[in-house]
Specification:
33% of the residues lie in helices and 21% in strands. It is built from 16 helices and 23 strands. Strands 10-5-4-11-21-22 form a six-stranded mixed beta sheet, sandwiched between helices. It has a five-stranded antiparallel beta sheet with strand order 18-17-16-13-19. It has a four-stranded antiparallel beta sheet with strand order 1-2-3-23, covered by helices on one side. A hairpin with a 6-residue loop joins strand 1 and strand 2. Helix 5 packs antiparallel against helix 7.
Length: 576
């Protein structure tokens, strides 16, 4: 076989037939990497182009969505009177986007008589069409998509419990003055220039160690108590055959630990009043209401009002004094948001004590129709709570009173009688001859004496402890009636007042009612620590719905806190 010089140079043998040429071509691998590299280069270009087109499309989508969100928020506002479609398309045009493809649907909710707008919903969709730069090489000339959203502003029922600290420390450092300014500004924001104003109610709950509920409100709850038969009835004139279990001098309620696990206070919930008493001495005269543990001269609860002038006047009348019981304030504030209270509200509307606008409130726990808020503030921390011991809260005392023995000249005593001479103290361990101790004037023991069982005046009436502690302070009862007659009874009456709750237990009760309020997001709790000590700040932080709902402020910063809370309450929400 002959070979060419070139073939011999490369050590190859030249094919001599067509079949040999085919075989050689098939087996020749020279240049294959170059071809593969070209394929990879084209593929990378396509992927990069795809990324560029997708990035351009996403940028376009974001621009359209942002414009659409802003447009429907504005169009759904109850304060605007423009046509919703015109307004939305105007937003697109000013943003440099094509308004022609935008579809707008407006829905309106009217009052029952059809004359008032109480809800507006705006739904809008916008197409997104973009010509591709690189994807067209793959046969995709255009990317299509859409953007949509819905905004709804409605006159939802808004129910607010404004729970404010009026303890003694609030009278320091201008705290009460700063609170009044802030609270009135809060009322203005929530109830002025607000489309939901007619559907918003505010309850004001002032508290110190107790909460003055108010006679009109408490009379519609189950705080009247009952009557208990005395057995046996003492065989003396005017002896009590029955006694009351509750007084009606004041309207503070004493709660037990278990009460703080629940939100509701209904008309059938049994309520026990804090006793009507003054601890300490009062010169043997009737204590004024201001010196009682529950003072009706303090501001009471103002329930469910949407009249700014009434609310602000109530705020202006707040005065400070007393210890701190945040748990009691929170308990009443939550109860005034619970649906179980609705029948009480309706009864007060029927009696023209509340506006017709609040009939049926508090509403159901349904955020679609009713939003419920607690705004709780304190400048301190929980202290102690006190009340008369059970044996002295009610029931027959050992003291009788005779009106006929309070005036005129008494020959045996050799002097004019005074109002103190009408009191007779039963001495059950004495014999008949000295059964009654008559203390006479409280400033001396020179005119006190004992008399026999039959000497009790015919008009004498036995006093229960409710009446006795209305007439005298706790210490005066112990010393006037028992110091000279019964030292054991004196000691018992000196200690008639006991601490019902202490610092730690009140903190626990507050935490329990805050937990009950927040359960299931039924109530949103805002809490303010106003120049409060560490324990007070911790209690407020624990009570708030979140850290974002807690405010730690000083001085006039309390106005900023109330303004922020009011803005959040009235804020429009974007849905879908």
């Amino acid at each position: 076989m002959r070979t060419s010089n070139l073939a011999r140079r490369f050590g190859a043998t030249r094919p001599t037939s067509v079949s040999e040429l085919k075989t050689e071509f098939a087996e020749d691998e020279r240049g294959s990497l170059t071809i593969f590299s070209l394929f990879l280069f084209v593929l990378i270009l396509l992927i990069a182009g795809l990324a560029v087109d997708l990035a351009r499309f996403e940028s376009e989508r974001v621009a359209v969505q942002n414009t659409l969100d802003s447009a429907i928020l504005s169009a759904s506002s109850l304060n605007q009177e423009a046509d919703a479609e015109t307004l939305v398309k105007d937003y697109f045009a000013k943003a440099g986007l094509d308004p022609d493809g935008v579809t707008v649907v407006e829905t309106q909710q009217l009052t029952g008589d059809g004359t008032g707008l109480v809800g507006r919903g705006v739904t809008a969709t916008a197409p997104i069409n973009m010509n591709t730069l690189f994807m067209s090489m793959m046969g995709i000339d255009e990317l299509n998509g859409g953007s949509g959203g819905r905004a709804y502003e409605a006159v939802q029922n808004i129910e607010i419990s404004l729970i404010v600290d009026i303890s003694g420390s609030m009278g320091q450092n201008s705290r009460l003055d700063n609170l009044k300014v802030a609270a009135k500004e809060f009322v203005d924001v929530v109830l002025t220039d607000n489309p939901s104003a007619d559907y918003t109610s505010i309850s004001i709950i002032p508290y110190n160690a107790t909460v003055v509920v108010g006679a009109e409100l408490l009379s519609r709850l189950n705080a009247g108590g009952g009557a208990v038969a005395v057995d046996p009835v003492p065989n003396y004139p005017g002896a009590m055959a029955t006694y009351r279990t509750e007084h009606n001098f004041s309207t503070c309620v004493r709660f037990e630990d278990d009460d703080f696990y629940t939100r509701a206070i209904s008309p059938t919930t049994p309520l026990n009043r804090v006793s009507h008493f003054m601890e300490g001495g009062n010169s043997y005269t009737k204590p004024s209401m201001n010196r009682r543990w529950c003072s009706e001269n303090r501001s009471s609860i103002l329930p469910l009002s949407n009249d700014p002038s009434v609310l602000k006047a109530h705020i202006d009348n707040l005065t400070s004094g007393g210890w701190t019981g945040i748990d009691n304030g929170m308990k009443w504030g939550v109860a005034l948001l619970d649906p179980a209270f609705a029948s009480v509200t309706t009864a007060m509307v029927d009696d023209s004590l509340l506006s017709e606008n609040v009939r049926g409130r508090p509403g159901r726990y349904d955020s679609a129709t009713t939003l419920k808020y607690v705004v709780l503030m304190t400048d301190g921390d929980n202290t102690i709570q006190r009340d008369l011991d059970t044996q002295f809260k009610t029931g027959p005392s050992r003291v009788w009173f005779s009106e006929s023995r309070t005036s005129g000249y008494d020959d045996a005593l050799g002097r004019e009688l005074t109002s103190y001479d009408g009191y007779f103290v039963e001495m059950p361990d004495n014999g008949d001859s000295d059964r009654w101790y008559v203390p006479g004037r409280p400033t001396t023991n020179n005119d006190d004496y004992y008399t026999d069982a039959a000497s009790l005046p015919a008009d004498a009436q036995q006093l229960d402890y409710i009446e006795l502690y209305d007439r005298f302070s706790v210490r005066d009862v112990a010393r006037f009636f028992f110091r000279e007659s019964d030292s054991a009874a004196e000691d018992a009456h000196e200690d008639a007042v006991g601490q019902t709750e202490g610092y730690a237990s009140i903190d626990t009760r507050l935490s329990d009612i805050c937990t009950a309020a927040k359960e299931g997001n039924r109530i949103t709790v805002f809490a303010i620590g106003f120049e409060a000590p560490t324990r007070g700040q911790d209690a407020m932080r624990d009570c708030a719905s979140s850290l974002g709902h807690y405010f730690d402020v000083e001085g006039t910063e309390i106005s900023d806190a109330f303004q922020s809370i009011a803005s959040q309450i009235t804020m429009l929400r974007l849905t879908e």
